[in-house]
Amino acid sequence: MLNRDSKSRKPAQNLRSRLKEATADAILVAAAEVFAEQGLVAARMETIAERAGVSVGTLYNHFDDRAALLDALMKRRREALLERLDEALADSDGRPFREQLATFLAALADHVAEHGGFLRVLMQSEELMDRKARQGQSRAELHRRLETLIGRGVRAGQVRPEGQSLYPALLMGMLSAVFHRELGASQGGEGMEKNLEELSRVFLKGVEV
Prior knowledge:
The protein has 8 helices and no strands. With 209 residues, the chain is mostly helical.
């Protein structure tokens, strides 16, 4: 026979879990805003807590310190980017390669437009020097998606098969140059779409059949 109390505890536990998740989400959103405005070093946990509408104690209940908060935020942003790129790959599957590339680059541009302030702070901060492994993981995940994109073009006969193993790395290098140029500027990001269009033209000129 089921314990009646166990039935009543389950909805309460689910509610607490949802509230905990919502609080963590609010803290991460506030942290991204404060980091973007004040930088990683100057940003204070008290300011982040106030922006999130929680006490400092509540913030520390979710994240042990600023490093843990930053790691969680970077993980959340990385997951959001990869989800957006996967959607772009799925939506463009079967279209001409140049359209697939344009859709993929547009997804990248949208992510930068949405999170440009925080991304700019990350690029300009020395605090990330000890996070090379995590950055390497992000690059590997992006590289795999570019391999998928290039492979489609080759199989469709729209991309030259010669040197196809080098194309993802070449495209990543071009993307890195554009991102550093745009996000490294004090008011960077405005020319991102235009530069990605130029990047696409240059890349296609070298690989299209």
